[in-house]
Amino acid sequence: IGEWIPLGTSFPLEMARDADVGSNSQLIYQLIGNPSFSLIVQETPDGSDLPHLIVERSLDREKESLFELLLTATDGGEPPRTGSVQVRINVTDLNDNSPVFSKRVYEARVAENIPAGSLVLRVQATDADAGTNGRVSYSFGDVPDGVRVLFTVDSENGEVRTAGQLDFEEKSTYIFGLDASDGGGLKAHCKAQIDIIDENDNAPEITILSLSSPVPEDAPVGTVVALLKVRDRDSGENGEVSCELPGEAPLTIVATAGGSYKVRPELVLAKALDREEAAFHELVLRAMDGGDPARTGTARIRVTVLDANDNAPVFSQAEYTVRVPEDVPVGSTLVTVAATDVDEGQNGQVKYS
Length: 353
Prior knowledge:
Layout: E1 10-12, E2 27-32, E3 37-43, E4 49-55, E5 66-75, E6 82-90, E7 100-101, E8 105-111, E9 119-122, E10 125-126, E11 137-140, H1 145-150, E12 151-153, E13 159-162, E14 173-181, E15 187-197, E16 205-211, E17 215-216, E18 224-231, E19 241-244, E20 251-254, E21 266-269, E22 280-289, E23 296-306, E24 314-315, E25 339-340
Parallel strand pairs: 8-15, 17-23
Antiparallel strand pairs: 1-4, 2-5, 3-4, 5-6, 7-10, 9-13, 11-14, 12-13, 14-15, 16-18, 18-21, 19-22, 20-21, 22-23, 24-25
């Protein structure tokens, strides 16, 4: 009997036979076993009594799927004699139950560098129905295409796995819907929330926003030579950056307000320049993050020193002594003096007087 059968529906049962005659063969039926069913007797065209099973209460296969009743027939003899038969009722299923997830929201945390095919989480839904009505399959709900590129869901066991490479810097949390459907078309819904854990997979990046080159050699200490931008796409300690300038260059890196090199550090003069000592400086800036192991990024800067007229000409001798005869002709060369200037350009061109 289907669990959807309306109340009052009747089902004919088999008649009992009694070989006696008269009152000894007149039968009375009785049904024993469960109040969900009752018994009525209807007369057939040939005058026999046919017992009918009547559904008295709504059936629910999920609560009780099998009933075992006892049908007895008692004749009118003295003493009366009885016969009995067992009536076994199997309640067939109606798809009257939707799947039910064990949780409303399933949460997971996974590292961004896990390989494709890795298990992220597993959802589970049950259905109280039987057969195909209780067989659950899993699928995505209404989700963006980007989710389907990065994740898969197994229709049989509800396992959610990665299908592509996750990237914390692109997106740190995915929230999407999953459906459980039974064989009769009923559905249940749940949410999956997947938080991506940052890995130190990005090296710091140094960008030169502006560069003042050449720099006059008489520029004062503290002059800003370059404005930098240092950035690490990772988060937390993996994205905390420190900068350094190795070597003996007369420049240093100064962090801007707040002390974070993620803002805009400046490259400034740390001591006076001397073009005559070094006409240019090749600098290698290095940025290092706080990951374990740490990752580094570098940038090269060439700073040219512009000459200032900070050197006077110098004669090759402090004093020239010449002995000349008094009758030397006018216009004769008496001595040649020489002076040099270490500055360059016009600053180093020497004139005599």
